[in-house]
Each structure stands twice: as structure tokens, then as C-alpha cells.
Amino acid sequence: MLSILAPKPANSGYCDGISRRNFLRIGALGLGGLALPQLLRAEAEQGIRKSHKAVIMIFLPGGPAHQDLWDLKPDAPADIRGEFKPIKTNVGGIEISELMPRLAKRMDKCAIIRSMVGADGAHDAFQCMTGRKSRRQQPPGGWPSLGSCVSKVLGPQDKAIPAFCGLAPPMGHMEWADTGQAGFLGIPHAPFKPSGDGKEDMVLNGVTLDRLGDRRALLTSLDRFRSEMDSFGQMEGVDAFNQQAIGMLTSSKLSTALDLANEDPKIIEMYGKGDPKNRDDGGPKLMEHFLIARRLVEAGARVVTLAFSRWDHHGKNAEALRQDTPMLDQGVSALIDDLYARGLDKDVSVVVWGEFGRTPKINDKGGRDHWPKVSGALLFGGGMKVGQVIGSTTRDAGEADSRPVQFGEVFATLYHNLGIDVNKATVPDLSGRPMYLVEDGCQPMKELVG
Predict the structure, then answer these.
(1) For residue 191, what are the contacts with CB-CB under 8 A and spacing of at least 6?
(2) Would you state the pLDDT for residue 168?
(3) pLDDT-derived band of residue 28, with 50, 70 and 90 as boundaries?
(4) Which has the closest alpha carbon to 342: 290, 298, 381?
(5) 202: helix, strand or coil
(6) Which residues contact 16 (CB under 8 A, 6 or more apart)?
(7) Mean pLDDT value across residues 131-141
(8) What domain of life is recorded for the organism (predicted)?
(9) Domain 53-201+242-449, what architecture?
(10) Pick from 315, 310, 316, 262: which is nearest to 284 by CA?
(11) Which of 3, 130, 362, 392 is a good FRET partner for 417, with 20 to 30 A between their CA atoms?
């Protein structure tokens, strides 16, 4: 508690001689001039409900063949329908690929979007991470990803756990390994990437907590001095970064969440074992990332992104899907079961998608090429309305036939599930101008959230 060395006021009601009025005034100064009612009012104006809710985004690099996973066309000609047959799910009238029998048994806990539109055709994670239509004509610094926006708007739920974590491993085509960029929000809101040698930086390496406290005090003094010279407000961001780093170093929560030695072996077995090797230009199949994502959100992370396998099948599409889809089926199904078993199904929203779909017609190499006109997505958790299919495509799965869904609508839904009102909440760009989190017209999907 802050003590002020001053004469004790008469009739003071507090043991340190500070009146209630002065106490509130001191508290306001400590919060940038905002008293508690003002802070609460500011949150309300931004459309923010404080919560422990989270999002897991599973990116499928390269763009999976939607007509071989979620939107099969058994009555189409052979060179369109492909080799796979639809199977019934536990929801009447919904069928998915025979390659996903586990998900078929859990369709009552999932929602499928068969009519994702608006992909710009770029072979990267940009739209899936930002919800923006194009990387062209971005504001200075670039558009921030969902995780970075959530980090800025809500901040960390726990100082020891980064608000935004990215699990994508390095790939030959690094645009697929993009876990989400901070854009104009800057480094303090970039994803924490706990991969490779970075794990070594999460220990104090012989520095005691007392010495760390001395260094922290010195940094604070230096930062305060530099902030007085800073006309662009950049030191505020640096200080936030330092606070996050110190919080991580002084707690074992993060390292514990990342260490699967702390997990029940039966749970690890449920998620399965993958393949860490890159194939061609990318695509490690790290089954443990599904589990680590759950452990991170349970520990306090607000957004976790991961990239799984490689779905750019210009040749031998069916052969590749036979190898990869059963693993995706197992990993996602295990995540569903795990979230429900831990009571997280209302708090954690999950989306599974790629940057675009694949061509209706199979090419002469047995593959499907890039197809930005339409694609699919799978969602579950977050208290969303599940056990349904949203939208439909034409007979050849080439275009949306009903209820086209924009990337930004899915983002608006995810923000809504986190307690953020996209019609009110903004983040400041490099010039300080408030920017909305989604593009004009994008609202939470009524089919999913009512």
C-alpha cells in the first residue's frame, strides 16, 4: 500500500492517516487518472466483458480440399466427386468424409461452414489470422491478427501466461508457419512462440528473484526517463513487453503448461503421435500441439494458433488425404473430448480452416488446385450453436449456393465469444486513430450465437 509522509488529517478514518477521498484520488493517479467507476465505464464503452474465455485456431496450411472433407458430392461426376464416400454422423442429415469417423461421432458438438467466401487466393495464413480481405492497402505497420487484437483489448488473463501464443513450427514455405502478426500493435502483442531454443529463455539461469527485482527497478527507472522523451508513446509498449517477460520468468505456469511430462499418459495417447518432419515445403504433423493448445488456454492464454500438416495437394490428392486426414480427425476429436471433460466447452472456441478450397475438377496428376471461390470450416466450443451445417455449395462444390460466409464474420463471432463487442471495441493504429477489429458489415453469425 502506498504511504504518504504528510501531517495526519483530523478525523481520519484510516490507520495511515489518509482520508477516503484522498485514497480514491491516489488510486486514480495510479491508474492514469481514471478512478474505478471511470475504468468500468471505459470498458463498457469499448464493449468488453472481462472473462477467461479463449480461442484456439487450427490453420491447415495450403488449403484442404473441402469437397473431400466437409462437403462431399456423391452424385457429381467421378472427376469431381473424387474417391471418398460420405458417411453419416450422429446428427441426422449431416454427412462428412469417410476419412473422419471420429468427428462423425461428435458432429453434435460441431458446426460446419460449407460456404466460406472472399479468399483473395494468396498462399498464406493472412486472412485466417486477421480476418481481413486482402494484405494489399494495409495501414502502416500492417493489420494485427486476432491474437494481437485480443492481447491489446483484453490484456493477459494471468501475467505469467502470454495472452497470445503461436505454435506453428518452421516450414519450407514460411508463410504457412505464420502464427499471426502484431501489425501496428507492435511487439508487446506479438505471439509468444515456445519452440526450439526459445524454451531456454523461460528460466532465470541463476538470477535470483531479489536480483531480478533490482534489475526490474532499474529498468523501470530508465524507462520512465526515456518515456518523458518519447513523443510517440512507444515506451508504453516496451514497458508492457518487459512486464510480460518478468511475469513469465517469475512463475512456473508457462513452462508447466508446455511440458507434457505433467500430462496424464492416457490423455497424451488419446491425442496420438504425429510426424515432426517437413514434407516438401512444409507441414509437420505435430499431434502434441492440439494438446499443448488446450493446456495453454487452460493455464490462461486467450488465443492460441497452430498449423497442422500440409494440404496443398496439386498431385496425388487422395493419397495425401489418406495419410493426413485420419490424424486431423484424431487430434480434433481428442480436443473436443478434452474440452468437454474439463468443462471448457463453453469457454474455449475452436475454428479449423485453411486459406482457400480446392478446384472442383481433379487434374491429370490426381490433385486439386487452388480455389479461392469457396472453402469450408469447422467450429466448436465457445457456447456456440452446434450440430448444424451453415451454407451450401453448387453441385460441383465450386461456388457458394446459399449463405456465403466472409472470414470477417467468423472473426466477429470469435470476438463475441470472448466478450468483445466488435461494434464498439477498437485498437489504435500508429497514428493513434481507433480502428475497428473487423471490416464494415461483419457481425457475429446469428446461426452460431443467436
Answers:
(1) 145, 147, 148, 162, 164, 165, 166, 179, 180, 182, 305
(2) 85
(3) very low
(4) 298
(5) helix
(6) 1, 3, 4
(7) 93
(8) Bacteria
(9) 3-Layer(aba) Sandwich (3.40)
(10) 310
(11) 392
Burial class (CB within 10 angstroms; exposed 0-12, middle 13-18, buried 19+) of 266:
exposed
- Gyration radius from the chain CA atoms: 24
What is the arithmetic mean of pLDDT over 43-60?
Answer: 78
Please answer whether residues 51 and 302 qualify as being in contact, where contact means their C-beta atoms are separated by less than 8 angstroms: no
Contact status, residue 305 vs residue 179, Cβ threshold 8 Å: yes
Question: Quick one: which of 99, 131, 107 has its CA closest to 118?
Answer: 131
Please tell me the distance from the alpha carbon of residue 165 to that of residue 298, in angstroms, as a whole number.
Answer: 13
How far is Cα 437 from Cα 363, in angstroms, rounded to an integer? 39
DSSP string, 213-242: HHHHHHHHHHHHHHHHH-SS-HHHHHHHHH
3-state secondary structure 52-69: CCEEEEEECCCCCCHHHH
State pLDDT tens for residues 223-258: 554 454 444 445 455 556 566 666 666 677 888 899
Its pTM stands at: 0.83
What phi and psi values does residue 298 have, to the nearest 5 degrees?
-65, -35
Type of residue found at 27:
G
330's grid cell: 484424431
Q: How many whole angstroms separate alpha carbon 351 and alpha carbon 108?
A: 16
Is the confidence at residue 43, as pLDDT, over 80? no
Q: In whole angstroms, what is the distance from residue 351 CA to residue 428 CA?
A: 26
Give 248-252's long-range contacts (Cβ < 8 A, gap of 24+): 248/160, 248/161, 248/162, 248/192, 248/202, 249/202, 249/203, 249/204, 249/212, 250/160, 250/209, 250/212, 251/159, 251/160
Question: What does the domain layout of the chain look like in residue ranges?
Answer: 1-45, 53-201+242-449
Q: Are 258 and 294 in contact (CB under 8 A)?
A: no
